[in-house]
């Protein structure tokens, strides 16, 4: 009887063991399937971030901050993939695998947040962009996609409200000081650059923050018949800002040593004399209370091509395009040489040149705004105290 019972127990135990083994295999299979799916996602993240890093490096060699960020994301994604591989090798439970992957993903998010929150260095941008007067100029050595003084666009955009308020306050003080008769100070912002470098765009973004009452904008095209009847500085003198104003030149007197030189509109001996004439003219403006901020908006030929194509392809931009844009583009080396000479010959202590990398529009606008603010801060205009008895006038207002 006992033997019969033992025989009955053995099949039952074997059956239970078989069920347990089957369940274990099923659990193991589910774990492998989950880790396989997570690994696929991680591998995809690796490829995407690797492509991002490669693209960033190709498009902007000098944009080190963004390239570093892309590389860090790539490394983090790669670490995630490795973590998942370890999960599969160790045959961890699905929940443990999920926790491990989420831990690495959280590290990526934290790194990105820390990067985005990094403050803009407290630097004087003019010192980074200013050309040393009298020193040789090598435009080819200055990266057009660089962003001196800042790490990324997010940092700049976070600062824009404060910068807008700052430039508005300084402009009001400049205007008020002149209106009160206590100051002859003024600012002249000169924008030069190849076609599509963003002179007009800079005017819209930067000057749009200013009070029109204290702003004077002038875009210089080819000289009119009347202007040609006078010396080349005649039309410039007629448009310099008055006391308390911020003047903006979209192109300027430098066209007469750039286009005139490249297109051979004037004899070389006259071009040579014009450099000295410009220096004397600018020195006279400075002596009369003007702070001159000269900006060369530096773009690459590749970026110019993209912007010209954008003008052709967009009905809203096509009006900006003229066939002469390509004519000038064909003379790119000649224009770069003309700019080099002008920057060298007319970069003085009184009115130095600033080279603003302009491939990135957001940086170009930010840099010019910062240079304008720094110029106003160098003046440090103050509100006039008023030429009346404050107590007496307050009493009169109360009684009125």
From TrEMBL:
Pfam families named in the record: PPK2
Superkingdom of the organism of origin: Bacteria
Region feature Disordered, mapped onto this chain: 1-30
Transmembrane segment boundaries: none
Positions of the Polyphosphate kinase-2-related domain: 153-381
GO MF annotation terms: phosphotransferase activity, phosphate group as acceptor
Protein name: Polyphosphate kinase-2-related domain-containing protein
Taxon lineage: Bacteria, Bacillati, Actinomycetota, Actinomycetes, Catenulisporales
